[in-house]
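Researcher: I need the complex structure. Ligand is adenosine-5'-triphosphate. Inputs:
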Amino acid sequence: KTRLPDSPVPTVSQYACQRRTTLDNPNKVLTDALEVLVENCEFNDSMGPCSGFRRAASVLKSLTTALSCLQDTAGLPCLGEESKTIIEEIIDCGSSSRVEDILSDERYQTLKLFTSVFGVGPKTAEKWYRRGLRSLEQVYSDSSLHFNRMQTAGFIYYEDISKPVTVAEARALGCIIEETASYYSSGVSISLTGGFRRGKQFGHDVDFILTVPEPGKEDGLLPAVIDTLRSQGILLYSDFQESTFDLNKLPSRRFEAMDHFQKCFLILKLRAGLVEGQQVDPGCRRDWRAVRVDLVAPPAERYAFCLLGWSGSTQFERDLRRFARLERGMLLDNHALYDKTTNTFLQAKTEEDIFAHLGLDYIEPWQRNA
Ligand code: ATP
Ligand code: MN
Ligand code: MN
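Model: Output:
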């Protein structure tokens, strides 16, 4: 027998931004299980163990082969004892008792159901659960509860917006938004971002970035788009958020859910006839569906940061920022990259520029499914 020369074992980085994670995931059974634990931690407001399970799931998603025994995890980062126990149980018995217990837990099931409503987070879901409510019908018909505008829309369009959005629908929406924005200015550019940019075939919404080349002109963009969508009769819900962006503000230290650009969260009416390959069913009571659409309008000079920030995945974004801070002494968010050593903002026209500033190999959007 000939012995192969020792080849360097390719090491897997603890940072998702140094791993290439496509949508092919041979360890889906394992990552789904770990994500149940993440979700359960989020419902219990225990952030500590949460990030451990998140990182463990994310590392497994980057593997190109299925784990066949616990020894296969040797050398992998971010796998704590708890995660390893889950992995071992599933490899050996096909399921994990800890995960199965959570899945059959009434509280978990109810909070998952309640948070599936647009505008309902873990806190509200918990409040309803404590009142003894267990179904959406019970919640909706409870006259002592007050729903905000977002939640009301969430209930009204629940069925439609729970249905995954397809690539063809995302494309049709892109055409609608592009045409609508062109009435404001012929110079508007529109980019598809979020999960569809990462190559996903389905999404819970469609995310677009809109920019105009003239500095400052982005201020009126989304209000104009919203007005036009309304006059076309396809605006079902809109939550417009004015820009609070300040060019000189340092990137945020914390991973915030919100950035400071002008943005809006919409529900639009998408007519079946506009979606390629979709037949209009004459027997159907209506020829449209409601879809969730997010629009963000950064100043053109910050486009690359916004694109990188909105392309996700959330774990990829978290690790980009953590890497920037801990390994490079830099602060990164959706608006800017700041070098703390030289006290300067680093400019970027493209995502490639940002990766280069960070000393990272470029990771394509479809490799960011961490
Ligand atoms: P899905 O297919 O389920 O929509 P997704 O990856 O597109 O998956 P989104 O919730 O649409 O998920 O978010 C897309 C990206 O935009 C994420 O990376 C997230 O960090 C970012 N993002 C979402 N909402 C905001 C917000 N309000 N402010 C800043 N960034 C946001
Ligand atoms: Mn999305
Ligand atoms: Mn979104």
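Model: Summary of the prediction. The first strand starts at residue 165 and ends at 166.
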